[in-house]
Specification:
The structure is a single chain. By secondary structure, the chain is of the alpha+beta class. The protein folds into 2 domains: 27-199, Creatine Amidinohydrolase, Chain A, domain 1 (3-Layer(aba) Sandwich); 202-493, Creatine Amidinohydrolase (Alpha-Beta Complex). It is 34% helix and 17% strand. The protein has 15 helices and 21 strands. It has helices spanning 27-30, 33-47, 78-84, 110-116, 125-129, 140-148, 164-177, 193-201, 205-234, 241-254, 317-335, 345-361, 366-369, 372-378, 485-493; strands at residues 54-59, 65-67, 70-71, 92-96, 101-105, 133-136, 153-156, 188-191, 259-260, 265-268, 289-294, 296-298, 301-302, 305-310, 413-416, 423-426, 437-440, 443-446, 459-462, 465-469, 474-476. A 6-stranded mixed beta sheet has the order 6-5-4-1-7-8, sandwiched between helices. Strands 9-12-13 form a 3-stranded antiparallel beta sheet. Strands 10-11-14 form a 3-stranded antiparallel beta sheet. Helix 9 (205-234) runs antiparallel to helix 10 (241-254) and helix 9 (205-234) crosses helix 15 (485-493). The longest helix is centred in the middle third of the chain and has 30 residues, at 205-234.
């Protein structure tokens, strides 16, 4: 998989890692018997889909060097974790269609454990992880050809791990060499992500519990940042974006989150019009809006919240006018999120409200762009709203799962994009089912431009909540932090 995977030469003892990241890494997950049974059940579901003679090979993520003698904080591969709950690096799962799971993991090593943290080890893994067998990762290259022999299909993640295809080819060569002795070599290779994506798309009760807790932590972090912003400005203190980022990080770690789920966006004033802006050192002025897009990761699951608030705790008239428009568009999207609806329906509901609203507030001139229907058809809203209204959420902040309905994938229509002229192939959007989790995040971003009223210049607004599709509609699991402008102002006065 990578150069350090089977490293036999230990790191020099006088150079400990500056970023360990995985000290006692697996303990939080595999020490719970009930949780371990969940992973075993998932492996059984996957095994049942591999077909006769199938075998799946799933590695965890590789460790990444940050700079000299320092690694980036290790984070497990989501597919691997979904099936094992195991968070140590240098680990592989091999699963057969008969349901036999073999874990390859780091061996116990007193010297390395002094530096890097306690390892579970192959001896303890079967009982705690409920796998049938565990071996040292140093045996991977010798054991995989044996496990692949007499198998018909090898499943592995396509295009997710650099060098994995070549590695598997290397394991198949000795199997092929034994064909003349009666051995069978797998004659099919298939993408295990296709199976796992469908499994991960609908969350079970355990997953939803973790995600609700992650969202609760993130909501408290947003509240903390809002209140810090107003308090510093009231006190006449210099406020910078990194001050608010620090509040987020404090709250995440204070309540047990392992990491931010993604690089936090903390954008004051005009910076809020940059979609993937990162928290930096820019000054936040009293009359600015602040856009914070941030969420923590808890036990492998992401949260994702965006709130936009006045830095000093009081919306101006133009700020409130646009904010209420974005909020109304989110309300429409929430109402459209229910079982049986299409994934695209919340986006279409958002666009319909924004199209009419942009005309009403004067950001678009009806004499130039026509009616709201014309705004939608011609995508005249695009300079102010250029992204989709949501995405899947789960172990990854942009979680896996197709956005096309599997039963209708063969139905294709073509249209020409009115802005780019590009010919686009459309397939039927995914039908929402109970247990799916998605974000709902409309926005408006107003940059100075000819014809744009000056009172709206440099206003960037996004409101994002995480929604669980329920039997009757959807549950917003991020409303621990308010969205109504009056409630935000009241919170910031506290």
């Amino acid at each position: 998989m990578h150069a350090r995977l089977c490293r036999s030469t230990p790191r020099r003892a006088n150079r400990p890692r500056a970023t360990k990241g995985h000290s006692r890494a697996g303990a939080r997950s595999y020490n719970d018997r009930m949780t371990s049974s969940i992973y075993a059940q998932r492996r059984a579901r996957l095994a049942a889909q591999l077909g006769a003679g199938g075998i799946a090979i799933i590695p965890t993520a590789r460790e990444q060097q940050r700079n000299r003698d320092s690694d980036f904080l290790f984070r497990h591969d989501s597919y691997f974790y979904y099936l094992t709950g195991f968070t140590e690096p240098n680990a592989w799962l091999v699963l057969t269609a008969e349901g036999e799971a073999t874990l390859f993991c780091q061996p116990k090593d007193l010297e390395r454990e002094i530096w890097d943290g306690i390892r579970l080890g192959p001896d303890a893994a079967p009982a705690l992880l409920r796998v049938q067998k565990a071996l040292s990762v140093s045996e991977l290259d010798t054991q995989l050809p044996k496990l692949l022999e007499n198998r018909s299909t090898v499943w592995f993640p396509f295009a997710t791990h650099d060098g994995l295809e070549s590695r598997i080819e290397g394991w198949l060569k000795p199997v092929r060499a034994r064909v003349r002795f009666g051995a069978l070599c797998p004659d099919q290779q298939r993408d295990v992500c296709a199976l796992l994506d469908e499994m991960r798309l609908v969350k079970d009760a355990h997953e939803l519990d973790v995600m609700r807790r992650a969202c609760a932590i993130s909501a408290r972090a947003h509240i903390r940042a809002m209140q810090r912003s107003a308090a510093m400005l009231r006190a006449g203190q210099e406020l910078r974006e990194y001050h608010l980022d620090a509040e987020l990080l404090h709250e995440f770690r204070q309540h047990g989150s392992q990491y931010p789920a993604y690089g936090s966006i903390v954008a004051g004033g005009a910076n809020a019009c940059i979609l993937h802006y990162r928290a930096d050192k820019a000054l936040i002025q009293s009359g600015d809006l602040v856009l914070i897009d941030a969420g923590c990761e808890l036990d492998g699951y992401a949260s994702d919240i965006t709130r936009t608030f006045p830095a000093n705790g009081k919306f101006t008239g133009p700020q409130r006018e646009l904010y209420e428009l974005v909020l109304a568009s989110q309300d429409a999207a929430v109402a459209a999120t229910r079982p049986g609806a299409r994934f695209v329906d919340p986006h279409n509901a958002t666009v319909a409200v924004l199209a009419q609203g942009l005309l009403d507030v004067g950001l678009l001139d009806k004499n130039k762009v026509g009616s709201a229907q014309d705004v939608i058809a011609n995508r005249s809203y695009f300079p102010f709203y250029m992204h989709r209204t949501g995405h899947w959420l789960g172990m990854d902040v942009h979680d896996c799962g197709s956005y096309v309905e599997p039963s209708e994938v063969g139905q294709v229509s073509e249209r020409q994009d009115p802005l780019s002229g590009e010919l686009i192939k459309d397939r039927p959007s995914r039908i929402l089912r109970e247990g799916m989790v998605l974000t709902i995040e409309p926005g408006l971003y107003v940059r100075p431009a000819p014809g744009v009223p000056e009172k709206f210049h440099n206003i960037g607004i996004r409101i994002e909540d995480d929604a669980v599709v329920t039997a009757s509609g959807c549950e917003l699991i991020t409303r621990g932090v308010p969205v109504a402008p009056d409630e935000i102002e009241g919170l910031m006065r506290a």
